[in-house]
Specification:
446 residues, alpha+beta, 9-stranded mixed β-sheet, 5-stranded parallel β-sheet, 11 helices
């Protein structure tokens, strides 16, 4: 592949989105520098002060895209203890009041794997590119704008010893997981700000349990979708190693679980189905239990009008979603794959053209992910301009809660009896078939 720029690319954030972006940029730039505010210990699941890592659920669409970026990565996941599953046969997906979808083999694979393990494997694969440099413990504090033009040409960083350094950049990818740096650079450049969409978020607690390798509840994963008309509570169970299971419980603001074992189990008994509570009765005391406060879902609809040249947000810096069904992590991987495709099709010195094409082609991808991830959370639609209220009242927006509920219920009923409808629903849930060449394909693409 030809180099698209003679300069250096800088990626902010070494989560899954940032790691995939660095791997994508490596063939097109002489040097790629990945800046991560946490230390290298994060790859072993250790965060400053013992802070917990947020969970991840690698959907089949995410694994398919990851395999395209890192061929053979499934073997690495298996060696690391990941548990391979089939989307229809091994993952039990249930909706309150309507039951669980039947076990039907779909032939789409992914892996149950702890997020630190997944990030470590992707980081090791990315580090095989000799022109990719990791800067752990470096915090990006602001973006440097070129004199006289709304163009980003560097990243100001604070180093572990407190000193400052600026990295020159022909392209900056903001994969920090939040839009603050990108929005600040737009303001500094005198550009318009995007009109965001906000959706009601959840608070959640995550526990890890050790169980014998022979333990078999009949599934690798179990997802209980929230009840839109009742408590707005849900959760998932996922086998992340042969002897370890991760359980996430979630609720709307004011209803989220807390991080102690007794309260965790009590909260599970309030879910609209008994499945997760039944699982917990088989489990021992958790090895680790952490809670996370509620935050709203947010989609910052960036287009070229909002961004200085040389800057591109990715993943959570563009669209932030809760972890209940895994869309945010998968979205970051899909966007990285889309970025690779537009860079490969761009002419030499066509970096800004590639950025524009990416934003154009990313918009329908984001719209589909947003519509898949957000309405189920309470049957409540999104709103523009300000964070969504966290109460139980419907939010003014694109559809009423009852309309969203009715559409979901109809699709679920069809999936229960019709294998083709079941396949379509699971393709949507697992974000399969969305990125093909430079375009976003129909959800039912092969």
């Amino acid at each position: 592949m030809q180099k698209i720029s003679g300069g250096q690319a800088v990626v902010i954030g070494a989560g899954i989105a940032g790691l995939c972006a660095a791997r994508v940029l490596a063939p097109f730039f002489p040097k790629v520098v990945l800046v991560e505010r946490e230390g290298a210990d994060r790859l072993n699941g250790v965060r400053p002060g013992g802070a917990p890592r947020k969970p991840g659920f690698l959907l089949c669409g995410g694994y398919a895209a990851l395999s395209e970026l890192f061929p053979g990565i499934g073997a690495d996941l298996l060696v690391a203890g990941g548990v391979r599953f089939d989307a229809g046969d091994d993952i039990r997906l249930e909706r309150p009041g309507m039951g669980a979808l039947p076990q039907r083999r779909m032939g789409w694979a992914s892996y149950g794997v702890a997020r630190p393990t997944l990030e470590r494997i992707v980081a090791q694969r990315t580090a095989r590119w000799p022109n990719v440099a990791f800067r752990y413990g470096w915090q990006a504090t602001s973006l440097r704008l070129a004199d006289g033009a709304p163009r980003v040409d560097g990243v100001h960083c604070r180093l572990p010893d407190g000193s400052q350094e600026t990295l020159d950049a022909s392209l900056v990818i903001d994969a920090s997981g939040r839009p603050d740096l990108t929005l600040a650079s737009g303001r500094a450049g005198g550009l318009a700000l995007p009109e965001p969409l906000f959706g009601p978020g959840i608070g959640y607690a995550v526990a890890t349990f050790q169980l014998p390798a022979t333990f078999n509840p009949g599934f690798v994963g179990l997802v209980t979708l929230p009840d839109a008309t009742h408590l707005r509570r849900g959760g998932f169970v996922l086998r992340v190693e042969a002897e370890r299971w991760q359980v996430l419980l979630a609720g709307a603001a004011g209803e989220q679980p807390v991080a102690d074992a007794a309260s965790f189990c009590e909260f599970a008994r309030t879910l609209p189905t008994a499945s997760i509570g039944d699982f917990l009765r088989c489990a021992r005391r958790p090895e680790r239990l952490s809670s996370f406060g509620a935050r709203e879902n947010a989609w910052y609809r960036f287009d070229p009008r909002h961004l200085p040249a040389g800057l591109l947000p990715l993943g959570g810096a563009m669209c932030r979603l809760d972890p209940l069904t895994g869309q945010e992590m998968t979205l970051g991987i899909l966007q990285a794959l889309l970025l690779r495709n537009v860079l490969a099709a761009a002419p030499r010195d066509g970096m800004q053209l590639a950025v524009r094409r990416f934003l154009e082609r990313s918009a329908p991808l984001l719209a589909r992910v947003w519509s898949t991830a957000v309405p189920h959370e309470a049957g409540f639609p999104a709103t523009t301009g300000n964070p969504a209220p966290q109460g139980k009242e419907p939010i003014a927006g694109y559809a009423s809660g009852s309309q969203a509920n009715g559409s979901q219920a109809s699709g679920w009923r069809d999936a229960l009896r019709d294998p083709a409808a079941h396949e379509t629903l699971l393709r949507q849930h697992h974000l399969l078939g969305l990125v093909v060449d430079e375009t976003v394909s129909p959800l039912n693409a092969a």
